[in-house]
Prior knowledge:
It is built from seven helices and no strands. The chain has 131 residues and is mainly alpha-helical.
Amino acid sequence: MNIAKCLLAVLIVVTCISSNATPIPEMENAVISEHKTYQDFKETFIFLITKLTEESKAESDEESVSDAHWTCVNQQEIVKMFNNNKKYKKQFDQEFAKEYPSFDATLDGFQKSVTEMKSFCDQMQAAYDKI
């Protein structure tokens, strides 16, 4: 059953965040909404972090714009997801203590990144909308 939930969560996230697909609002809301379990929250977080750290294999300007756009979207989704799942602070802090300073510091870091990249992300959104 746990594997089925994991596969379903990954399917929803992949469908929503796929670089060649337009996200469906209901699926995007499932990614950033309050998660029912810490495990769901953790799996979504790991997936989004993996998407952020994947090396771009863009071979065209359109692919570069798409990659940049989805980097912006993924960071914004992490911020929304953390804000909607503060009840998992303690578990996050215990599990990810080696990788991340704390839940609050991780959220703060992504919020700062989103703020600092706003102008760039707005440009990438406009360019992405033209593709």
